[in-house]
Fold this sequence. Notes:
Elements lengths: L1 H26 L1 H23 L17 H15 L5 H22 L14 H15 L8 H27 L1 H23 L4 H4 L12 H15 L5 H22 L6 H30 L8
Helix pairs in contact: 1-2, 1-9, 1-10, 2-7, 2-9, 3-6, 3-7, 4-5, 4-6, 4-10, 5-11, 6-7, 6-9, 7-9, 10-11
Amino acid sequence: MYNFLSLLAGVIISLMIALNGGLTAQYGVFGAAVIIHIVGVLFAFLLLQFLRDSSHKPAEKLPWWLYTGGIIGVLTTAFSNFAYGKISITGIIALGLLGQAMASLVIDWLGLFGMTAYPPKKHTLAGLILAFLGIVVMLNHSFYGTAFPVLISLLSGITIVLSRTVNAGLSNHTGALKGSFINHLTGLPVTLIFLFLFGRNEAVFKSFNFSPHVWIYLGGTLGVITVLLFNVTVPTIPSFRLTLLSFTGQIFTGIILDLITRKGFTMATFSGGLLVAAGVGISMAGERFALLFRNKSPIPDETL
């Protein structure tokens, strides 16, 4: 079930990106970020009132860094926006995935942020190689020139993993839904600061008008659902597998959306996505085979 939820998170991320893109076109990058967080806070608050999330533990004093997931998430958006236009979209996607993969492997190996440690094993090596080959295919000829946008795109991927891991740690104490609410609530003031510092020339200040396309305002609701799904899946499966599963759902949903909207897609993205998906399949098959082999191994006779 958790593998499916990881794929579903990727699907929802693609839908969210499409909606947020329309919102950004209407109000600008920083104005859209504020609206997304306001909608997310209101939606999560309403869900809390109706669903009464009862999975949380009694109130306790928590480390301050557990509340930084929403702030880190805002940095992800800022990094992606900076890289946009300086390197190709395919390059941003691939470098973001590379950053996610690097951060996920370190967290799995060392068991950082209180997560379960998953040291690398031989049977997952082929899957890892295929996944990284997919990244290389997407990177091929996708950027030239300065190294700074490349570094920023890598940081974007790293912050995605850090944000979802910190949020999951918080949700262990507050409950998954309340953790999603806190994520958007802590991110909101940061987006407001960014708006007043860098977005004074955006349409949200100059000519604010409500769009008749009501659906563009729903990105914040999908953001709440995405954080909620990650709060459930992060503590249960290896971070690297979660990264590849969510990316697989995201990339192929994105391709379908491109075909529906007739925007087209690059073969590099499609081919790289296939390799990443194959890597996920091989890694999971290897884990299942190893578990099956271990269960069928004869039990030693302790009487000898």
